[in-house]
Amino acid sequence: MTASPDRPPVGAPTPSRHSRGETYEEFLSRVYMAAVRLGVPSRSALRQSGLSDADVDDAVAELVERGMLSSSEDPDRWFVVPPREALTRRMDQVERRVALTRATASEVESLWRRAMGDVGQARGPAQVDGLAGTVEIAHRIAELHRSATTRVWWAVDASVAATGLFADLAAGSTRLSVREEVQVRLVLDSSLLGDPYALAFADRARELGHEVRVANGVPFSVLMTDDKDVLVDLSRYAEDGDGSFGAHRVTWVQALSQLLVAIWDLATPYGTVLTAGQVGEGPPVVPGRLPLGDKDARVLALLATGASDKIIARQLGVSVRTVERRVRYLMEHLGAATRFQAGVQAVRRGRV
C-alpha cells in the first residue's frame, strides 16, 4: 500500500477487498490518507470525502486488520494508529512475506516443473531468470542449496555475492545448509585463499565430508544443483551482478556442467594445500628426490593452486621476499618453466 493524498472521486467504483490487486491498494491508500487528515475519522466525515457506506465498511475493516486504524466504543468512529508505528509494522509484514516467497520460490518452481514434465520444460515462463543485484544472487544461491536433493557443485571465484555469504556464515548463518544425503563438490578460486571467511567455509565443508578443491583462474562463479538448475554469478565483474542469471534450460545445464567438470579436474584437493608440509610429517624419504622442508612442501602445494606470492606469504607467516626466493629455488631444482608447473609437477610426483 502506498500513501497518496488524493481523494477518491465521488461516485467512482470501489474495488472489492477480495480482489487484492493494485487498484485496491491505491483505494486503501486514499482512504488511509483521508483518515490521517481527519485525525479521528468518523463515518460521516469519510462520507464527505466521497466514500459510500460500503466503501467505508470495506476500507476500515481492512485498515483495522492491518493495524493502521483501531476501533473505538463508537462503531462509526475510529482512531489512527501513529503512522510511524503502523507503517513500520506494515513494512515488516511485507518484508517477511517477500523473504518467505524468496525462500520457497525455487522449491515451488521445481515442484511445478516435475508436475508439468516435458510440457513444463517447453512452456516454462522462466527457463532463464535474470538476477538483479548481489542480494538477489545470494538469495538464489541459498535457495538452490536448500532445495537440492542429490547434488550441489559450486565453483566460486571472488564473487561479491559469495564472499558476502561466507561472511554471513562466519556470523552464525545457516543459509548454505544442504540435506545430509546431498553430494557437495566445492572449488574455490586461488584468489580466495586470502579470505578467512572463504577458508572457514571450506574447512566446515571438509568436516562435513564434502569434497573441496582449489583452482587457479575460475572464470566466474557457477553453481549447479541436481543436474537441472544452474546459476551464473558475475558479481565479481560488476557489484550489481549485471548479467548474472539462473537457468534450467537443458542445454545450458549440460554445457555449464561440462565447465564444472573441467574446473574440477584441473583443481588441487584442498586437503593437500592444508596438510602439505605440516610439522611432524616431514618429506617422504625417496632416493633421488628433492629434499623438501615443511614450508617448501606447503609452498609447492599452494603453487599448484595458482596462489600468488602474497597469499603464500600470508598462509606461511613469512615475508613475500622469502617466498620469492624459495619459489625460484624450487622451480630451478624441479626444472619447471613456470611456478604453476612446479607445483603441479610436485603434486603429481607425490612430493607433497
TrEMBL record:
InterPro entries: Sig_transdc_resp-reg_C-effctor (IPR016032), TrmB-like (IPR051797), Tscrpt_reg_LuxR_C (IPR000792), WH-like_DNA-bd_sf (IPR036388). Residues 1-22 are annotated as: Disordered. Residues 285-350 form the HTH luxR-type domain. It comes from the Bacteria. Residues 1-12 have a biased composition (Pro residues). Pfam families: GerE. SUPFAM superfamilies: C-terminal effector domain of the bipartite response regulators. PANTHER family: HTH-TYPE TRANSCRIPTIONAL REGULATOR TRMBL2. This is LuxR C-terminal-related transcriptional regulator. The lineage of its organism: Bacteria, Bacillati, Actinomycetota, Actinomycetes, Micrococcales.
